[in-house]
């Protein structure tokens, strides 16, 4: 750090941080409309997966949600649907809101 003074170092660091922030904002994050559309699509997929389950499994998952046993509800949902952890967690969150347990 002997070759550069403190002010120049902080100016370069700030410039790099700003560029990194701007690149991050422009890549992959999408617009608010894109995010809202993605959330609506995920919610619909979760509702479809839940409605395709056997009624007994639906009732069991609703009971687990009502009892606050979210991990067990997610696990049971995954067993029934074969979906991944994130999709199952999101589906249980949507279901929880739909039955008024949120």
Automatic annotation (TrEMBL):
Query: Bias category Basic and acidic residues: which stretches?
Result: 32-46
Task: Note down the stretches annotated as region Disordered.
Answer: 27-55
TM annotation in the entry: 7-24
UniProt keywords (A-Z) are: Membrane, Transmembrane, Transmembrane helix
Record protein name field: Ribosomal protein L7/L12 C-terminal domain-containing protein
Q: Please, which domain of life does this record's source organism belong to?
A: Bacteria
Native organism: Amphiplicatus metriothermophilus
